[in-house]
Write a structure and sequence with these properties.
The complex is a heterotrimer of chains A (about 325), B (about 350) and C (about 190).
Chain A: E1 5-16, E2 19-26, E3 38-46, E4 49-56, E5 67-72, H1 80-86, E6 93-96, E7 100-101, E8 111-117, H2 122-133, E9 138-144, H3 153-160, E10 164-168, H4 177-182, E11 188-193, H5 196-208, E12 216-219, E13 230-234, E14 240-243, H6 249-255, E15 274-278, E16 281-282, E17 296-297, E18 303-304, E19 309-312
Parallel strand pairs in A: 8-9, 8-11, 9-10, 11-12, 13-19
Antiparallel strand pairs in A: 1-2, 1-6, 2-5, 3-4, 3-6, 3-7, 13-14, 15-17, 15-19, 16-18
Chain B: H1 21-25, E1 43-44, H2 64-77, E2 82-84, H3 89-106, E3 111-116, E4 119-124, E5 129-134, H4 145-150, E6 156-163, E7 166-173, H5 182-185, H6 190-193, H7 205-214, E8 222-231, H8 242-245, H9 257-260, E9 261-270, E10 279-289, H10 290-293, H11 297-309, H12 312-317, H13 324-331
Chain C: E1 26-31, H1 37-46, E2 53-58, E3 68-71, H2 74-86, E4 92-98, H3 100-112, E5 120-124, E6 129-133, E7 139-142, E8 147-149, E9 156-164, E10 169-174
Parallel strand pairs in C: 1-2, 1-4, 2-3, 4-5, 6-10
Antiparallel strand pairs in C: 6-7, 8-9, 9-10
Amino acid sequence: MNSPIEVRVAAVTQITPVIREFTFEPVRGALPGFSSGSHVVVHMPVGERSVRNAYSLLSNPAQTQHYRIAVRLQDESRGGSRYMHEQVKAGDLLQVSPPANLFAPNSQARHHLLIAGGIGITPFLSYLPELQARDASYSLHYAFRGGFTDAYLDSLRENLGTQLQTYDSIQGQVLDLATLLASQALGTHVYVCGPQRLIDGVRVHAEQLGWPEIRVHWEVFAAPEPGHPFVANLARSGLTVEVASDSSLLEALEQAGVEIPNLCRGGVCGQCAVAYLDGAVEHRDAYLSATERSNTVMPCVSRGLCGSALLLDL
Amino acid sequence: MSVIFKPLESYRDDFTYHNSAQAISRFPFPFPEDNYMYSVNIEPATPREPGSVFSHWFDIDEHYLSEMAERSIVLERDPERCLVMPHMATAAWDTLEMLMTHMAADYPEHFSLSREGERWTWINRPLGIEQAFTFGDADTLPCEPLEYITRQTQGDFALLDQRDGNLFMDAGMVTCPADWSIKFDAGMSFTQWHAPVPMAHQMGVFERALKYLLNIQVDHPVRRLNWTLTVNPRMDTSSETYHEWGQERALVNAENVASMVHLRVELQFMPRLPRSNALLFGIRTYLISLEELATNPAWACRLHRVLRDLPDAIADYKGMTLYRQFVVDWLSQYDPEVVVA
Amino acid sequence: MTTHAVQPLFSTPVYQNQPHSKAATRRLVVAQALDQSPVEALISELQAHAQPLQVLAIGGTGTASDALQVAASQAELVQMLHAALRSAPVGTRLYLCGDEAFIWQCREIARHAGMLNEEIELFCAGSRRQLYCVHCSALQDIADQTEVACANCGVNLLVRAHFSQRLGAYMGVCLDPNNVRGEVRP
């Protein structure tokens, strides 16, 4: 396992009524460098538990004196975003994972088409300085609720000019994905980050229009959704782990001292896949094939069905 | 402890290259068992015992001056052994930063780096270099940044662009490869450039290795050892020059085998390049003659068993079929289980 | 490895007989000649789709129309291909038909225009292909032989199955380092 880095909260800024920005500085030494599209996993002590959520780094990769992230307060929070909003203040110490990147710009793209929904703007904030420094062709399509989830809108308008298109749902402005994707020059790659329905929309339209999958890049940053409590038994170590409704299986295993390699904590990268020997699984990942699901579970998002015990090969 | 550099020795023509007793003692002998088969033998590159080849990210040893002189000879004949596709420029600067930072920190008596913002000064004492330059501005260096720093670092380097769930060899400095060609393989995916390796594809070795490499994180490099045999201590056993060195395989006989045949070990080291998200693939080559190796009889015994039992397809791929029996026969004197007839 | 037997490798190209049934908003066929049988079969198969189909070809007996452009030479065809790609959107599928030397030249043009392997289908007709001499970097056209002398440096080459898509060529490497240029030896 990669050991976490201790950081100090250098600043907390309210960006919109529901979005707060946090600036982290190293407690000792220097922070590791990172590339556009990287994220870190923030460890949050919520009550007895340790909740771990992934957040995009939104600072300029050329400047690694500090990291910046932005957190949207989620209605259905398992406690992570609420903790960040209500508990964390300047001067606090936090643990974060080293940066990892599952959403990097593609080096072969002739044009980068960026589509952000609300808080999904954050990874693109680390793309823009890099794309501008490389003199790359790009455009940003940003959908939000005006005055609510329109983080960084003013600075984007100032910085991007005509390369920015905005869609404010309050004003009834709609992002027409089918039209947008139908008229993109050869060599375009599309990147989407935001709510699941926006990601699904881009993927479905792109597929219908003949875009190969590798032109379509997406990142979900929803924290795992809560579910019913269940029990996991560990076949090799003999441990029994109880998973509370607002905890993920991965978090519960970590809490019990079982460390499992992981990167995205969102059911996408496949790193944390674990074999199970018995029990029924509610699969919520976007990684495993139907065949793999018969004996493999992604504990970062998926859960055992209520009432049945899951037997893990651990 | 400070590294003491030997005076210039040659990796061609008169082949004056030799290892000191100290170099032999730190040689990365690659066989954990008495037999060999392809495997995903990748491990986290955590530093190991001081003085060993595993103690620093980039190992500098007594052959530093000779190896850098050899690299210059190869590049003079064939400048395209260093190749950087335009989209790899950031990765080349990443590499320069990583190499300079680590070499200055690990070998302060030989190298130093001072940084004031983007104004950097690099000092390489053994090669008599002092260079002030602007980080990110290639015009302030005498040549392209990857070439600049790898002309001062032992080992070959490939820079792999990560995209489409694969790794693409889109840049590199390769002057001492074990029978492959950067000029031909440039632009290939991980699976494509490994295409000529027998058996391993069917075993799923590359599929698993690729998954592992794609997930390497910043500051958490991995390493593995690879090996082959080379006739004479020749660094540049590239495909490009095969028509010049291939005939040496036929010159091995029972009398010269111990001094002529060398075990060639690659210490492959793979760190994530932070700013570009590319993967650096370092290939640091160590050469040891059989007679030097046999100063450690346990190594000679194990190598005997490995080579004797090696599957023919692997022996063929590694180019040793013509002279393998001479090697096995000579090494057998170190194997107590071999009954002398 | 250098003189390993010539068996197909993971890097050896594989060609199609049938077009894939993947979604596309327009289709573009580029053919070295129209009267090759795989080309005729391909075009009639693709005409079944509702989306626009454009064909570029050298010579042939076809009459030029909106859907068919006929070039007098390969150089002219290459110009037509450049022009067609300049105005093409993502969603275009490209079908290349001809010998390997032709296919890979066109494919490199398409790649430079921003197309991905996944959007390009290759149909091989004819035996001409490119060989890269690893010793002098020269490229030359060859047929299906497995041994040939380099036209530039004279080294007798083994034609390996190892293929570079970037160069559009198979690797040629010294066949016998004990007899590099095949001189008669005492």
